[in-house]
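Hi there,

I know you've been waiting on this one. I reran it after we fixed the sequence typo, so this is the corrected version. Both the input and the resulting structure follow.
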Amino acid sequence: MANKRSSGSGKPDTLPWHLAFFDAIRLELFENLDDIEITFEHQLTSEPLRIDVLIVKKRKNAVIDKNIARIFCGHNIIEYKSPDDSFSVRDFLQVCAYANHYAANTPNVDDADLSLTFVGNRHPRALLQYLAEKRKYTVAQSSPGIYLIEGYYIPIQIIESKRLPKNESLWLKSLTNTLRADSARAILEASTDNRLRMYFGAYLNILFRSNRKIFAEAKNMARRYPTLEEALSEIYPEEFPRFVQQRREEEKEKIARNLLAESMTVDEIARAVELPVARVRALKKSKAGARNPA
């Protein structure tokens, strides 16, 4: 959800993992993009209540032959946790509530045509134990890294991304801050595919920033370039300006949040940091929501 951006330590994430996850999902399902519509942070209400990723089949009978998508129905809600975070029982209950809210308030949605997917890097031991022992649901590993949960009225799967096979789910498996050198090389090779380039923006940005040493070794960058930025500008000449722009926007938002604490007006902050007034207003609203959780 957009309003849950914290690590297991309770501190806010410093890297936009959810944006990279959205890219990873599109890359994983690239062959089926004509059959589905994927929405990032689908807003459930006028308040900041959002689904991380919503995937809706454009054709009801579309078949998505991917390990991560075999339970997919017409409408598919996906919740994601960044690499250092893990799913709790509370997270599970909250997302189930969101699914019911979505089914109850979205026109032409049958709750029998809905699925839930939880994606995280850590093994969800406590949650799986809760579902099996407390809820008496059937928990079965259908394939490496994918656990099917049966017993709830909505099909549910929990994906432990680090255990996914690289040959089937390179993008999700590699969405980590502990990337292996062989995976880094595979990503660099795959990124030469021009068909995929438009989906690499946030994904490559986050991987390079969180796995600098591995990518330097994978591309032998250390000897060729003084900085990672120079390496990226040569390897990805079209994408690199987007990387730079995204980092600038993140810095502007960080400054804007600090200025909000100084009681400056939204208009003053927008002018000072060169952000749209609407964006600063949204930052102010999210800041207020964080102080006063429901």
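Quick highlight: The beta strands are 36-43, 50-57, 75-80, 114-120, 138-143, 146-150, 156-160.

Best,
R. S.
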